[in-house]
Design a protein that fits this description.
The protein is globular, with a radius of gyration of 26 Å. Helix 1 runs parallel beside helix 10. Among the domains are: 69 residues, no CATH class; 133 residues. It has 304 residues and is mainly alpha-helical. It has a two-stranded antiparallel sheet. It starts with a helix and ends in a 24-residue tail after the last helix. 63% of the residues lie in helices and 1% in strands. It has twelve helices and two strands, in the order H-H-H-H-H-E-E-H-H-H-H-H-H-H.
Length: 304
C-alpha cells in the first residue's frame, strides 16, 4: 500500500509544484518586451513578413485584431518539434528531440496504460492465455501501448545519455554546463534504464496496467525489487523536475507570450498603462552595489 500512496504523492507533487511555479511566473513584474517581428498573433500576412498593427493608419482608434490560431500553431511547432532549436542548432536538435519525443511517447504510453486498465477492470482483457485478445479495440490498445512504451523509453535513454556525453566532451558545451545539468540528464537516464530492466521481464507492460488498476481502486501494488526501485526513482524524478530548470515546460508559455510576442500597445487609461506604471514603481528589496541603484551617502554636516 505504501507504493500506491507514494505514486499518488509524487503525481500530486508534480502537478502542484508545476502550478505553483506558473503562479509565480504570472505574478512577476513586467518583463522587458522584445517585440521581435514577425509575431505570429498578427493576423494575415503581417504575421509572416514581420508587420504589425502599427502600420495601419490611426491604429489607436481601431479595434485590435489578434490571431489566436497563429499563436497556437507556432506554439505547437515549438512544443512538439522544438522548432527554434531545429532552425538555429540543427546538430543539437537531433539529440534533444530524441529525448523530448521519447517523453511525449511515454506520456501517450501512460494514457494507454490507464485506458487498458479501465478496459480490464470493465471485463475486457487485453491478453488471454493464448496471447493478445482477439478484440480489435483491446488489441489496438495493447500494440500501441507496446510501441509507444518501448520506443519512447529507448529514445529517452538515447537522448539523455547522448546529451550527457556531448556536454561532457564537447568543449563548447562543457564550458557552461553546470554540475546540476549533468546530474539531471544522468538521473533521467538512470530512471529509464531501471524501467527498461523491468520491461525486459514483461515486454507486454502487464505490470503497468496492474499498477494503474491499483491506483484506480486504491489497492496495494504487487512489485518485486526491480519494479519497486523503478517506481521510487520515477516518483522522486517527478517531484524533482518542477523544482529545477527542467520545468521549462511551464516557463516557455510566459517566455513566448509575455516577452517575445507581447506587443500590446500602451494607450492612455489602458490595462497595459497600469502594468507599466506598476513596473516603474517597483523598488528592489535587496541591497545593490551599482551606483545607479544605490543612492549616494548623505553629505556630512558642517560642524560649527
Amino acid at each position: 500500500m505504501l507504493l500506491t500512496v507514494f505514486i499518488y504523492a509524487s503525481i500530486i507533487a508534480f502537478i502542484g509544484i508545476s502550478l505553483y511555479k506558473a503562479y509565480q511566473y504570472a505574478k512577476m513584474p513586467m518583463h522587458g518586451r522584445w517585440e521581435l517581428y514577425p509575431v505570429p498573433k498578427e493576423p494575415g500576412e503581417k504575421g509572416h513578413y514581420g508587420g504589425s498593427y502599427y502600420e495601419d493608419l490611426e491604429w489607436w482608434n481601431k479595434p485590435r485584431q489578434v490571431s489566436h490560431s497563429g499563436e497556437i500553431i507556432d506554439m505547437m511547432k515549438e512544443m512538439l518539434f522544438i522548432k527554434n532549436l531545429f532552425v538555429n542548432q540543427r546538430h543539437q536538435w537531433w539529440l534533444s528531440y530524441a529525448l523530448h519525443l521519447g517523453i511525449y511517447l511515454l506520456g501517450l504510453w501512460t494514457v494507454l496504460l490507464a485506458v487498458g486498465a479501465v478496459m480490464e477492470l470493465s471485463g475486457i482483457p487485453l491478453t488471454t492465455a493464448e496471447g493478445v485478445s482477439a478484440s480489435f479495440a483491446a488489441s489496438m490498445v495493447y500494440y500501441i501501448t507496446f510501441i509507444s512504451g518501448s520506443v519512447g523509453a529507448l529514445l529517452v535513454a538515447f537522448g539523455s545519455i547522448s546529451l550527457f556525453l556531448k556536454r561532457m566532451f564537447n568543449e563548447t558545451f562543457s564550458k557552461y554546463t553546470t554540475p546540476q545539468e549533468y546530474f539531471n540528464l544522468f538521473f533521467i537516464f538512470a530512471v529509464v534504464i531501471s524501467g527498461l530492466m523491468v520491461w525486459s521481464a514483461d515486454p507486454g507492460f502487464n505490470y503497468g496496467r496492474e499498477i494503474m488498476k491499483g491506483l484506480f481502486t486504491f489497492s496495494p501494488i504487487q512489485a518485486d525489487g526491480a519494479l519497486t526501485a523503478h517506481i521510487i526513482l520515477l516518483g522522486v524524478l517527478l517531484i524533482y523536475i518542477p523544482q529545477t530548470k527542467m520545468s521549462h515546460y511551464v516557463g516557455k508559455y510566459f517566455a513566448f507570450h509575455k516577452i517575445l510576442w507581447d506587443n500590446e500597445p500602451n494607450l492612455r487609461n489602458s490595462k497595459m498603462e497600469e502594468v507599466i506604471k506598476g513596473a516603474i514603481s517597483y523598488k528592489p528589496k535587496a541591497s545593490w552595489s551599482a551606483p545607479h541603484i544605490k543612492p549616494p551617502a548623505p553629505a556630512p554636516k558642517d560642524e560649527k
